[in-house]
Amino acid sequence: MIWLSFVSFFVALVAAGAIVRWLGGSAADYSDSMPQRFHVGDVPRLGGLALWLAITVSWLLGIWQTSSGDPGSLRLGSWVWWWLLALTPAAMGGIVEDLTQRLAVRYRLLLTGCSGLVALVLLGVSIPRLGLPWLDTLLHWIPWLGLGISLLAITGLPHAFNIIDGYNGLAGMVALIICLALAHVCIQVGDRSLAALLVCTAAATGGFLVWNYPRGMLFAGDGGAYVWGVVIALASISLVQRNPDVSPWFPLLLLIYPVWETLFSIYRKLARGVSPGVADALHFHQLIYRRIVRGVFHDDEARRVLMRNNRTSPYLWGFTMLTVVPAVLFWNNTLVLMTFCGIFGALYVAAYLGIVRFKVPHWLRH
Question: How far is Cα 311 from Cα 152, in angstroms, rounded to an integer?
Answer without folding.
Answer: 33
